[in-house]
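Hi there. Long-time user, first ticket. I'm pasting a complex I've been working with (about 914 residues overall). I'd like to know whether the download I got is complete or cut off, because the file seemed smaller than I expected. Thanks.
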Amino acid sequence: MTPEEFRRYGYQTIDWIADYLARPERYPVLPSVKPGQLTDALPARGPEFGEPMDAILADFERLIVPAMTHWNHPGFMAYFANSSSEPGILGELLAAALNGNGMVWKSGPAVVELEQVTLRWLRQWTGLPEDWFGTIYDTASVGSMHAVAAAREAADPDSRTRGTPPGLVVYASEQAHSSVEKGTIAVGIGQDNFRKVPVDAEFRMNPDALAALIERDLAAGLRPCCVAATVGTTSTTSVDPVPAIADICERYKLWLHVDAAYAGSLMLAPEFRWAFAGCDRADSLVMNPHKWLMTPMDCSAFFTRRPEILRNAFSLIPPYLRTPDHPRALNLMDYGVPLGRRFRALKLWFIMRTYGREGLAEILREHVRLAQDLALEIDADPRFERTAPTPFSAICFRYKGTDDENRQIQERVNATGEVFISGTELHGRFSLRIAIGNRGTGSEHVARVWELIREAV
Amino acid sequence: MTPEEFRRYGYQTIDWIADYLARPERYPVLPSVKPGQLTDALPARGPEFGEPMDAILADFERLIVPAMTHWNHPGFMAYFANSSSEPGILGELLAAALNGNGMVWKSGPAVVELEQVTLRWLRQWTGLPEDWFGTIYDTASVGSMHAVAAAREAADPDSRTRGTPPGLVVYASEQAHSSVEKGTIAVGIGQDNFRKVPVDAEFRMNPDALAALIERDLAAGLRPCCVAATVGTTSTTSVDPVPAIADICERYKLWLHVDAAYAGSLMLAPEFRWAFAGCDRADSLVMNPHKWLMTPMDCSAFFTRRPEILRNAFSLIPPYLRTPDHPRALNLMDYGVPLGRRFRALKLWFIMRTYGREGLAEILREHVRLAQDLALEIDADPRFERTAPTPFSAICFRYKGTDDENRQIQERVNATGEVFISGTELHGRFSLRIAIGNRGTGSEHVARVWELIREAV
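Hi, the file is complete. Here it is re-exported in full:
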């Protein structure tokens, strides 16, 4: 492609995106495609010779866009809603053009240093200890797996050489994200050694139950090594009592990992810092700018105050990657599994500068306010009940009827294409779930989803 | 940012990229920054309030670009050289704008299906079995870790619940990439149970030595579970004898993983298929479009003929992600550690269509031809010697002098800013290493690096 052609198609793509972002509502938030429909519409074989970009862009609009679930749609209120943003998109565009790779400092000084700079800014903005170490992974699942691996290393430094010893135990609440359990499986501790700690009526880990489980495991000759607390669980956004859990971790010398993948962004707004009390006592913490900081997938920030443990667990320097030691030339490959590292910090830097801390905090505040208002509306309708507290921007509730009736409400609402809400299971019953987190979502969208739900009864 | 502002800054960014790609040589391939220099040039704290995009883009040019190692520079001949391409950049731009997330089918039908379609095309283009399953990870390191985890699961289905059993053993050659060893550490098998199989004079795994190690381990009561063969090792691009290794794996019922991260792309050109004989007998194989298929970081293709093993190892479906079963609605989260998945297939689709199989093959052929020509030149100069065969596009060689003299040559050459070559250690001595893989690299760049090297003696 000549520079002129790139310019032409680049402008055309920018125009398409400008229109798309200006009104994502032109598309239904959930597509109407059936499984396999896109696959069947595409050629069974890749082309032998090149095709013109006009044809590709036309197919993009004709086939790909209608098969997208539109995460950038203001009616997206499922899972944890999020959005990309113009500065994030431009940052990603430049990162793709530079194609930097920060596996070692020398292979990408800017990749490595900007990652450290943006994560330092993030620690300052969130009130996390400034001397912690940070690195960016693709997802919180990968971050949490590294936390469990670090806990294993801290509990038994021979793990690296001899393999995961038998009897290590990892704890998280019944409401913790599945990735903690998956990480426990991945690093060879095993699902039988993953304890789901009971929660209280508000879905928060019960620290007494945690302590009791630890005591039981110790009495059985097992070796507790890690507790994963969650600030903002995936189903209900409940907040585990981190100070009490930190006490227990200190008493038993366990690695404390905090999963703040969703809620962590709220630390940017001081009035929400209450939820993060005790997090400064953690050994590691994960939060996802790609969830609530307007950052395109993927960008998950992993912090630890004990980077030397990660290094001990993972550093392996082959001859073809040896570089002279320098105290300020960090080789990020030493801290985990992935070797190649794309320039994820660039988009984060663009976003942090474009919005500023206060600009981002203001968006989050508004999302929480919208959710609180909707919670009051739900409470005021006798046909509905909330099924969990609403500390932040996600609301769990149900129609006072059968699970099937609730599922039908969800289906009818989602079938409109105007909104996308998800569901979860609480106390053995199906709950509807609305998560507000898209920057385009305003009071009119929240009013509309509530209207659609009431109409669907 | 208003749509008009996005359009303006978007055009400006596209213009910058068009100019950058038209002449990346305007920048030195290796930057002259010192460790910490960029960090010190950036504010110690992130901004409280937003800043204008003009300022951010200006800082990008003033501070970030001069601190980049330019992987898109035609003089980049270190590690495995690669490049992004215009269609890949446009695909990445659109992926960032759509911000899709393919954790389950419903959350991104196009994300999930296009990944399957492009990987199917890739299997056809490479001659790999069409019925294999494929998924995209960020890096080959993560792919290889999943291969070792699958091998663990296949060897002992109780691993998932009880943890990694003691005594499992993983084998790879002395020349295998460090990620196989790292994956063995990560999944809890342990470095002591990782065997570095000796290689022959041409750096290929010795299958007799492999069989002998397996027999020794069996006699010691250990449980061999996995062999990782490499087609195109990282130091010398040597090719392990996969057919003989596959025989051994079948005899002992071991998981055969093939690391073809670099060379795998060459399967697109039929004349290189010899190097991949036996790969159709593997249990898993990894190849990186982000290495040699003009794809911006990151995009690593992982194939397996036994996806049910990965599923058994990793599937965990929490209530908030339950979706109705449908045979064509794949939930990719079930096959590994990462839950969130960005739309990596979009750029790959743009690239596969823009170039076609033959267009990509032709670029690779030319790179190999350039490397072969340079190898002949090196052979013809009595002051130098090649230190390994050159089957593909990477050349290992040395000045017939001390290691220090060779290191000085490397430093002098790299200090010109015109080229970036790396080094490695072979038979205990330092070798220079030139890897050709940037789409802009032509005979003039290869002539120039050879000229610079001879001048540096």
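A couple of notes from our side: The radius of gyration of chain A is 23 Å. The mean pLDDT of chain A is 96.
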